[in-house]
Each structure stands twice: as C-alpha cells, then as structure tokens.
Amino acid sequence: MHFKTENNTAASINLEMESDVLKSITYTSAKGKLWIALLLLIFIAGIIAYGIQLKNGLIVTSMRNYVSWGLYISMFIFFIGISHVGALMSSILRLTGAEWRFPITRMAEAITFSSLLFAGIMPILDMGRPDRILFLFTHGRIQSPILWDIIAIATYFVGSTIYLYLPMIPDIAMLRDKLNHASRWRKKLYRILSVGWKGTEVQKQLLEKCMNIMTAIILPVAITVHTVVAWLLAMTLRTGWNSTVLGPYFVSAAIMSGAAAVLIAMAVFRKAYHLEKYITIVHFKNLSLLLFVLTLIYAYFNLNEYGVPAYKMERAESEYLNELFYGAHAPLYWSVQILGLLVPLILLAFKRIRNSIGWIVFVSSLIVIGAMVKRYIIVIPTMLHPFVPIQNAPIGYGSYFPSVVEWLVTLGALAGFILVYTLFSKLFPIITLWETSDAIKDKGAEIVGVDSRVSSPVSI
Amino acid sequence: MKSITLFILTLLIIQIPDCVFAQAEKRNAIITMAYQKTDSTHVINFDVTDIKNIPVKDVTLNVFVKRMFGMMKMEDAFTDSTGKASLAFSNTLPGSDTLANIFVIAKIEDDKLLNDTSAQIIIKSLIPYQRSQPLARSTFASRAPIWLILAFSILFGGVWIVYFRVIGLIRKIKKAGI
Amino acid sequence: MQEEEENSRRSFLKAGLITGAAAIAAGVIGCNSDTKPPGSLTGKKVPLLDSAGNLIYVDEGQIPVHTNFKGITNEESRKGIPGKKFVMVIDLAKCDGCGKCTEACNKMHFLPKEKEWIQVLEMQDAPKEAPYFFPKPCFHCDDPPCTKVCPVDATFKREDGIVSVDIDRCIGCRFCMAACPYSVRVFNWTEPVKPDIIEETPSMERAFQSKKGCVEKCDFCSHMSRVDELPACVTGCPMDAIYFGDENEDAVTNKSGQTEKLSQMLEDRAAYRFMEELGTKPRVYYLPPVNRLYPKPNMNDAKS
C-alpha cells in the first residue's frame, strides 16, 4: 500500500497542505457561522414540528389510511441512498486502485456517517408510538423486513464509522500535537480518538491491516443495506413495489445519488475552505465520468422497472402505470425521469460538461433532487393504488400532499444532516492529510490530482 | 346374513313444555331417540309416545344438529302408525365439543295436537376432534423459521466478528503507542 | 344506589365480558353442556352489551353461566379459542349494499365514521360484467402478509384462524397497512374518542380497540365468539347475507340462525376467495352474485 516505511507519518505530512486544511478547523468565517446558524434554525424548527406531531398524533401529517407512508419514508430511503457514497469511495475506488480518490474520500465517508444518522431517525419520526421503540428489541421478529433494516443499518453505520475513523487516526494525532490553542474538550477528544498514535512501524502495519479488512467487508454490507431497504417495499404484494429488481434498482440509484452528493460537497468545500489546490478539476472530471456510468446503470434499471410491466400491462399494474404516465402523478414522474435522469445522462456524456465544475454541480443537483423526488414517486402512487378500489373515502384519504409539519420535520432532518456534516468538517480535517501526502510522495501530484505546485512532503 | 350392531347411546331428555298456557286438548308427548349404526347405514330412530305410553302417529319431527352459533336443520321425520320414525344420518359432520360429540335434537313444534317438546341424542362423530395446533415456525407466525435465524445470524454475526477483530486491532494500535 | 350500579357495571366490565341478550331471550334447549339454564331471579341487575352494542340491564339470574367467565389473559387471546377455526361466508347474491353491517360493526367497536372495519364496496370486474356490492371485512388470511412484516409481533395469527392486533404492543410503524393487499387496516391518526365504558380486560379481545398511534382492524368479534355469539356484522345484516362459523364444525350461521353445512355450501354455490392469486389464503369466502333479487349498484355513482 501507500505506507512509507522509512518516514515518520507526522513528518511526511505535507506542511503546506496541512496548514491550508487546518484553517478550516481553526477559523470559521462569518459566512460559515451564518450557515451553521441557519442550519441550526431549520433543525430546531423541525424539532418543534415533531413536538407538535408527538402531541397531536400523526393527524398533523397528510398521511391517512390509504397513504399510510409518505414523505418520511421517502426521505428515509433517500438518506440511505446518499449514504452509499462512502462504500463507493472507500471500497470500489480503493479496490480499483484509483489514486485520485484520496483528497475526496473523507468527504464522502463523512456523508455516509451523517446521512445514516438521519436515515435511522426518519422511521422513528414516522412511528405512531415512538415510546414503544424498545419493543423492537424485546419483542423483535426477525421475519420482519424492519428488523432486517435495523440490523443492516446498524451494521453499516458501525462499519462505515469504523472505516471513517481508521484513516483519521494519524490526522487526529496530528491535531492533538499541533492544535495547542484548542479548547480543553477538543484536546481531550483528539487525545482519546488518536489512541496514542505515534506513527510507529507497528502501528502503521496494524492500521493498514484494519483498513484492508474493512475494505473487503464494507461493500457487501452497503449493498445489503439498500437491498433490504428496497425489500421493505418489495416484500409486500403492492402494485409497483412487487418487483424483483427493486433491490438492485435501489442500490444503483443509491450509488448514483451518493456520487452526485459528494460532487456537490466537493465544490462547496473547495470554495468555502479554499481547497482549490487539492480538489481540482481532475477529481471532478474523474468522478463525473463515474457518475455518468452510474447514471447509465440506473437508467438501465429504470427501463426494467417501468418498461417491463408497461409492456405487459397486467390489470392492477396498468392502473398504476397509467397514473404515472398520463395521470395525476405524470407531471412529477416525467419531470423526475427527464430532469433527474435523461438530462443528466445527456449532459454528462459531453466532455465539455464534465470539464466544468459549474456544470457538474448543476447536473449533480439535478440528480440529487431527482433521487429525492423519485423516492416520493416510488412510495406514494403505489399507496394510492391498492388492489381494492378506494371508495367513499373521507376527505383527504384519497390523495396525498405533505403537510406543513411533514415539510418542516423533513427539512429539519435535511438541515440536521448538513449540520452534522458541516460540524464534522469543523472538528476534523475534511481531507485525509497523511494518505494524500503519502500518495503525492509515492505517485506524484499529478496522479493524485492535486495542483502540481503542491510540493512533495518535506522530511524533517 | 347381515350382522347388525345396535347401539343405543342415549335415551330421551324430556323438556318441560315451553308453552305454559297450552290448550286443554293438547297432549304432552315424549320423544325417544336412538342411533343405529350398521355397516352401510347410519340411522336415527325416533319413537313418539304420549305420557300414557301410547304411540303418536303422523307427527312431524324437526331434526337439528347443534352447532356453535345455531341449529343446523336436517331433514324432517314423520312418525308412522306405530309412532316410529327414522332418519338416515350420514355422520359426516364433525363433533362440536372436545369429545367429538354431535348433539342431535328432535323437536315437535307448533303441532295441532301436541305441546312443543324436544329431545336430544349424543352421537360420537367419526371425525376426531381437531385440537388447535400451535403455529409452526414460519415467516408469518410468531416464531421465525430456523433457516431464517441461521441465515441472519451467520451473515451479520460474521460481519460483527470482523468488526470486533478490527476494534481489537485498534486497541493493539493503542498498546503499540505506549 | 347510583354507586352500587356503577360498581356492578364496573365489575362486569372488569370481567371483560360482553354477551348477547339474544342468548338469554332464546333460552336454553338443554343441550348446551357448558350452559346452565337461567336460575331464579335475584333482583340484581347487571349491565350487558347486546349483540347490537346497546347497553342493557338484565337480572343476574338470567345470565347463563358461561358468560360469567373471569376474563381471559393476554396469552389465551394470543392463542385463540381452543379447537376453533373461524370462517366467514358472504353471499353476494343477497347483499343489497345497505351498509348495515358497517353500521353494526362501528357501533359494536365504537368506531367513528371514517373508520370502517367492514367496508361495502361497489365492484365491477369488467365493463360488461355484472356490478355487485362487496362487503369486505378483514380476510383473516391463513398466510397473512400483515403478520409476516410486523416487527414486534403486535399483529399475529391465532390458532383459531383469527388475525388479531395487540394495541398494547403496536409501535405504529404501519408496515402491516402497507403489506395488506386488501386495505383493511386503519390507523389511529389522532386520539380516539373513548366510549363511556372502560373495559378493564387484560385480554385484547374486547369491543373497543382504539389507541392513538396504533393500527386496528376487524377481529371477527372474537370477544363475541368467546361466548358463542355471532359477530356484529353478521347479526347486523338484514339480508342474511353474512354467515359466520367454525370450520372445524363445518357449519356457518347467519343472522336468522340459519345454519348451513359449510363444505356443502361452498361447493354448491361455487364459492371463491377474493384475489386467490395473491396466495394469502383468506378465511372469508364469497358466493357469486347470481340471481339477485335487489337492484344492482350503479357503477357511475361508485367511481370516486
């Protein structure tokens, strides 16, 4: 691997990069503070909205007996999807030996951490009796896909957190040693988390071993997670969910939306933390090419998911598909399919688009928003098309549009997700310093994709 | 030669006439029931007499089988000049209690000459009592199938063992730093 | 006096007993092994819910012994009534869509209008095919998709065939609602309005089963079956269209007490189960709507 045995890690870290990246931890601009305040505000609004929901019951949502799952479950699936970027970066790119990944891996893995945190919360927000949540452990039935979800998500969360943490150990040790003016709790945090890292030969070998193990294990776990989340829907006899490709379809969407999310995060961090030298057009180019391939795979699954039943038009299926293609949900459906899939696919096919950070952010935003709305399109129209016709339903039972409380809670969760992500970048270096330094030293700045003016690490 | 086995299982239960204000000319009657089982036929025999033991002819007997929520109507039986009647009883019904007993009830109702009365006979059903079985392990039952438990334990147990190994290695990193 | 009445009312309710006045009115034929004939009048009035859900006062001596059971435990109601396999048959040829079954059910279980444990739908399978009314209770499937997905065993299959809900266990995830292909389950989106009576039964077999944030549904009126009484929808059907009984006894009974041999009825009338292709094995059979004596539904009105 990329460990240099003859050098002490602390010494091999590129000093220039170190000071550039550490700025983001030691200094928060006015804009940054405003950003955090704004997120906190939305997050608190979400908590208040949830309080209202707890008090009055789920009546404050727009969900009713027919549409018994709504925005919350859609967002749950979305968060799970976004979380897959960690596995993509740390496992797929690592296994394929893409050296350019180093400056962006931590960004990606931190997305996984933060989004899984909120993915786990979404179903709890949706519960009618959150006070009975412990019943899941005391009376849990392993036959239920919900238990599969809990097990798989917990497993993925722990695994990806370990994987996020492992390459952070040397960086945290550096923070421990260099941030002399940090507050006491911060120092304590760094001291604990750096587990006495001194960069000794034995420690390096152990760390390398840990990372090799995790690389192998995290990809299947990630695939399991989104597959069982898809099974939450696919294990029912419902039109539109009763599909055998739902698992891989969701996995493909997950990796795609995750890659798009990290592209946006890259652009934001690059600008906000002035990391232009380290996150360069090379990373955007490579990752957007990957995004193109992932979008192609996703398009292929879409063809299977909608095209195959649309050709056969089985009775119940045809009612559902006709609603999607021509009915009340057609505007949303076609917007998602065209703006969230077709347009990105066409745009990403052009090299000129993939060479422009602005365009890439635009396309990625389309994909992320598209992925979010797509979850909604997967959940709601199916719930509105049960086998037994909806007749004489009370007002509000035969349709669904999220209520203010649902929007606030969802926005609160989204803000919370971004907030945790932002705070992470304020606590730890958002670029893995020692890995990137090592890679630059080994392979050269060009291969790693950083600015060629970034000099080789200096040995002390 | 035909071998005939005769079972007389239960005789008569006399019911107090329902109608207290019976007209003077109406008589009280007694129904006697017997279940007869041969190789090929199952018959219920009825014998209707008045309290002086004189057979009553041309009486319509309404025959029912007691079920959980109601009385299941069988065919009617008519007494002949000797006060006797019989009804083929196929005995294809299950019983209605834990002993697989079938309660067959004969009633005289709204007869011009007789007060209402009824009698009951208990016949052992040929179909044994179906004891409730606890649900076998399955995906829809409370208890999970063994294969499911095994599959999950092995899959996720395996992953967690790896996690613990990695956590163990992190502890080793700490030790190596001291 | 007032207090005494209140106490007796409570003690009755504590026993979790609800029985029909019909059993008393009909008297005892002398064949019911577990029922004593009504004894002498004691002068003490006991409140009872009749099969229509009305609270009535009956002399204590008139109550058959089997209704004085001490209430059943939660474990017993999780198992179900021993030796039974409940089954329902709905004769579509007799159903005129009056909706009285829904009314009776809502009254029995204290349900507001927007909750319907039994729904009467107007169906037409193809444009030229006959329209018909379709009463739809819970099908109490033998391979229930809802109990499969329940994460906490709050909804479960009983040994007597009933699919029941334990509202003291339900976490309100609504997965069972998503999984039920027949949309029979309803959710308490808000705090339900509690009826005047408070049933302090440890068992989940009771008339009032609503709790905020929990799922509820038709339970085949298992609290009535405990005392050999028919479900509310059956006794509420003026058309005698709904039959209910024990498959192990091979018999079903309707409101008029007309008791049919189940196996023969299903065979002679070409009974079918709704959406057999889903493989859920419902415990509710339908008799096709042939030779109807009432006007068919107007499908133009039905489309919502």
Shape verdict of chain A: globular
Helical residue percent band of chain A: over 70%
Number of domains of chain C: 2
CATH topology of chain A: Formate dehydrogenase/DMSO reductase fold
Ranges of chain C where pLDDT stays below 50 over 5 or more residues in a row are: 1-40, 64-69
Radius of gyration of chain A: 23 Å
What is the alpha-carbon Rg of chain C in Å? Answer: 19 Å
CATH architecture of chain A: Up-down Bundle
According to DSSP, the number of beta strands of chain C is: 13
Termini Cα gap of chain C = 53 Å
Descriptive notes:
The complex is a heterotrimer of chains A (460), B (178) and C (304). Chain A is mainly alpha-helical and 460 residues long. Chain A has one domain (9-448): Formate dehydrogenase/DMSO reductase fold, CATH 1.20.1630.10. Chain A has helices spanning 9-12, 15-26, 30-56, 71-82, 84-95, 102-126, 135-138, 145-165, 168-178, 184-193, 201-234, 246-272, 281-312, 315-325, 330-348, 351-354, 357-383, 404-427, 433-443, 445-448. Chain B folds into two domains: 29-124, Immunoglobulin-like, CATH 2.60.40.1930; 135-178. Chain B contains one helix and eight strands; from the N terminus they run E-E-E-E-E-E-E-E-H. Mean pLDDT of chain B is 84; it is low at 1-22. The radius of gyration of chain C is 19 Å and the shape is globular. At the A-C interface, helix 8 of A face strand 4, helix 5, helix 6 and strand 8 of C.
How are the secondary structure elements laid out?
The complex is a heterotrimer of chains A (460), B (178) and C (304).
Chain A lengths: L8 H4 L2 H12 L3 H27 L14 H12 L1 H12 L6 H25 L8 H4 L6 H21 L2 H11 L5 H10 L7 H34 L11 H27 L8 H32 L2 H11 L4 H19 L2 H4 L2 H27 L20 H24 L5 H11 L1 H4 L12
Helix pairs in contact in A: 3-18, 4-6, 4-12, 4-17, 5-6, 5-11, 5-12, 6-8, 6-12, 6-18, 8-11, 9-10, 11-12, 12-13, 12-17, 13-15, 15-17
Chain B lengths: L28 E9 L4 E9 L9 E7 L4 E3 L3 E2 L5 E5 L12 E8 L8 E8 L21 H32 L1
Antiparallel strand pairs in B: 1-2, 2-6, 3-4, 3-5, 3-7, 7-8
Chain C lengths: L1 H13 L6 H6 L18 E5 L5 E5 L14 H6 L6 E6 L8 H9 L10 E5 L8 E5 L8 H5 L5 E3 L5 E3 L9 H5 L6 E2 L27 E2 L5 H4 L6 H5 L5 E5 L4 E3 L5 E3 H7 L15 E4 L11 H4 L2
Parallel strand pairs in C: 3-13
Antiparallel strand pairs in C: 1-2, 3-10, 4-5, 6-7, 8-9, 10-11, 11-12
